[in-house]
Amino acid sequence: MSEIASTGQLRMVFLRYALVAVPLVLLLGLASGMLAGSGYDNAWFAALAKPAIMPPARAFPVAWSILYVMQGIALAIVLQARGAAGRTAATTAFVIQLLLNLAWSPLFFAAHHVEAALVLIVAIFVAAAVTALLFWRVRPVAGVLMLPYLAWLLFAGVLNYEIMRLNPGAEALAPKPASTQISL
Description:
The chain is an all-alpha fold and about 180 residues long. The chain is built from seven helices and no strands. The chain has one domain (about 5-45, about 60-170): TspO/MBR protein (Ferritin, Up-down Bundle).
């Protein structure tokens, strides 16, 4: 027998990695957004002027869910490639870009730092591009799965820039917390 593992065994290894990686990446992404109060329900965000190219509210959870699932599948493909040159570097790059990604919603929606969030998107894009390249070197299909994410990051960067441009001093637009003091 010249094969190390059968096709069925390789599929099962991929499935095991995918069953962990996909939900993990998806849940981390969703948790970051939820904990930061991201979206149109955020009072601060609702008060901002939005660019004409701003998608409707329902587009964001759908797009990000699809992108996180694709990232999880790409990660599972790379993790399955045991013994492949560059696997560790690709996985490390993925973790770095994911951590940067998870920091964006708290920075933008919770801390209201629009300019810093734009700088962070640029860093996420660079880290994701490096990840896609390293994934491509391990398994080309994994690199291809990262391309829609890169495209969305470019679009998100444009949105972030436009919000920054349309809302100078956006940090100051944060609603004041309600007072619990009773005035007599």
